[in-house]
Each structure stands twice: as structure tokens, then as C-alpha cells.
Amino acid sequence: MPVIFELAEAVIQGEPTRVGELTRQQIAAGVAPKTILDDGLIAGMTVVGDRFRVHEIFLPDVLLAAKAMYAGMDALRPLLVRDGIPSLGKVVIGSVKGDLHDIGKNLVGILLKGAGFDVIDLGHDVAPERMVQTAEEQGAAVIGMSALLTTTMPVMGEVVKQLKAKGLAGKVRTVVGGAPVTAAFAKEIGADAYGFDAGNAVDVVKGLVGGR
Amino acid sequence: MNEILTFSAAEVAPAREAVLAQLGIPPLAALPPRTEGLLDAAATLFAEHVAPVGVMSELPPEVFAQVYHGEGRNARESPLAIIAGRAEHLALFAVTLGQGIGDALSRLFAAEDFALAYMLDAMASVAADRADETTEGRFESALRARGWAAPDGAALRYSPGYCGWDVTGQRRLFATLQPDRIGLTLTDSCLMQPLKSVSGVLIAGPRAIHRFSPTYDFCDRCEARTCRNRLVALYTSLRS
Question: How would you classify the pairing of strands A142-146 and A90-95?
Fold first, then answer.
């Protein structure tokens, strides 16, 4: 089996030590960093995402794979920066002001990184102004917002409003999610998209970035 | 009734199936040994760090009405306003699993040990629910011990942030209940610290008072529908 396939398989199996070793081995062999990233690390995570989507594997397996991928990225990141290879895009994520629930948002961040995005995680209880300002300063393509409380959902609408007021609507796209959030609510507040779960949110973000 | 509640770790320790369900894993799913290993590791961490404690304080309806009104930001109409008006007994409560669990979770996330972190988080979330349910049971028992004769009676909990009770209601609730005596505090944004904590009101009365149709404005925007699940559990529970 070619080493790059072994690398993808090690990601799928959630073996961080092996992934780190194989990534360094590929770097030493002169394989292009972008190839290692796309055909090894991201290819492995893509299989994991597909299996998760059809309930062939479950969340712990995805998280073990994500940790394994990070081990590869730690070795690869300096080379990607050196070669000026861009990520799929920057995504600012956070649980909205007044909401302390961030376990779902964290999962979205882990999966987005696994898919090849740069993720700026602002944590929980994030004010609309901070989300918008960070996206503007960092040149983010997408803001991802999470809420678990019906009472904090309206804050998502405030972020959309502020983006429009700053002339950033269309440049910075918005995706919303969280247990009480619906596609209808996303439409009502003018968000660009709705992610019904963490895996779907990654697909949605890919769609938003690809559609720019 | 105004008392500190203590719980043993065993009282709040969640069932394996409940933890897996919290992670979206079906009960009959075949798990790889590494997932079983994560469950065991999370259970060990949970037992090491959990320190469940609570506080419960009965209050008259007129005082609860002020607590519920909070800063005047509740939904114009909410089921809680109606249910509380039909209550036979009311008590504010707060329970926490303690800072240790939150610290352990932070350490796991910082170490990018995501799988174990999520397993422990799921365990703690289920445990917090178990502490709530235990508190409901203790409220009922205390009422019955002093002669509450309601054959079909039951207590159910409601929390700020849900069902039209604005999360800023936490401020008045905390000022009245004073859960800082169990180490529970509120941030400027009305978030509780430690993280795995729950506060709210316990409403006791005939089971029927808790029934309502989810037709409020905020219900349209809610897909969680945990209110329905709780109501079903209330009617199917063995609590008497």
C-alpha cells in the first residue's frame, strides 16, 4: 500500500502517533505538503465523515480520527505556511451572547479543521460585535453561530444585521445551528445557511465557500 | 424548607446507555473496544472529580412571581406563568456537579483529547439531569413528609433560558436563593459557574398542571422539545 494511503488509513483508525510518523516520513521523502494534506490527512477525514454520516461509526471514532489528523497537521503546518498554501477558508465560530453551551460548537470546529478550514473559535457568550469585528479583521469567509437556548437565538439575527450594516453581507456568510434552531429561523433572520448537525454544518460551510 | 442538598457520586452517576444516547449512539450499536475504553476512562475521571451539591428553598407564590418577572424580559406569554399560578408548592433550586468536572474537561480539550472530553461531558450532562431529577424527588418527599396529600401530585423543574423564561431571570433567582453558599456563581451574562450546573424552580401540584400545548411564539423556533419529553417522563415515572 502506498504510504499516502497508509497515512489516510491511520487517520481513519484514529492513530495519532502513526499519523505523525507517516506524515514526517512523507515530508522527508519529498512529497509535496499539499499532496500529504489532500491525499493523506483530508482524504482520511473525508472517509470518517462519510462513515459517520451513515451511522457506520459514531462520534468517539470521529473525534479520535480528528486528534490523529491534528498530529499530522502539527508536522505539516509549517510547510503549508512556507509554501503559501491557503486553507479552504477562515471560519469564525462561537456560541452567541448569553449562551454558555459550546459542546456542539466545539465539535463543528473540530470537524471544520479536519476538513481543512482555518477555525477561529471565539468560545461561548460571544457578543455580536466581536463576531463581526473578528470576521472583518481576519478576512473570514464564514461566521458560524450556535445557540442552545431559545432566548439567545435572536442574537444570531443581530450578527446578520451588523454584517449588513457594515456592508459585509455576501462577503462574510453566516451559518447557524443548535438544538432549538431551525431552517425556518435561519431564513427568518436572513442567515445564509442552517446546519442541522455538526457534520452537516461542515458540508454547508463547504458549500458557502465554494459558492463565493 | 431551605436546605443544602448533598448527593453521593453514585446517586448521580449516569447509566452507560444514557451516556451513549447523549453521544447519539444507539443502544444496540456494536462498539469497538476503544470506545468501551473511553467509557471506562471517563467513568474513572467522573468519579474522581464529581462533587455534586445543591440547594433548595421553598417560597410563596407572590415571591416567586417577582423572581419570575426578573428584569421584565420574559416572553409575553409563557406556560410557566400559568403553571406556577396553579402550583400548590414552589421552591427555587440549584445543583452543581462542582468545578472539578469543568476543570477536567478544560484540561482534556486543551490536550486535544476530544474523544475522552466528549465522553466525560456527556457523562456530566446526564449526571446533572440525574441530580435535577433527584432534587425533584426530594422536594416531593419533603412535602409528603409534612402531609402533602396529593395522590396524583408531582414536582417538575423549570429553568431560566427555557420556555419563555428569559435567562436574565437568573439574577433575581440567584439573589433570592443565594446558591453562592454551594459555590455556584453567576457571570455578567447570567451564565452559571461551574459549568455543569442547573437552577430553576420546582413546581409541585397535580400532574395535570404541567400540561400545555407547545403553541407559544418561542415554540415555533424550538426543535428541542425537551418539555414534551419531560412531561412524558412525569406521566410514566414511578414517582408517586
Answer: parallel
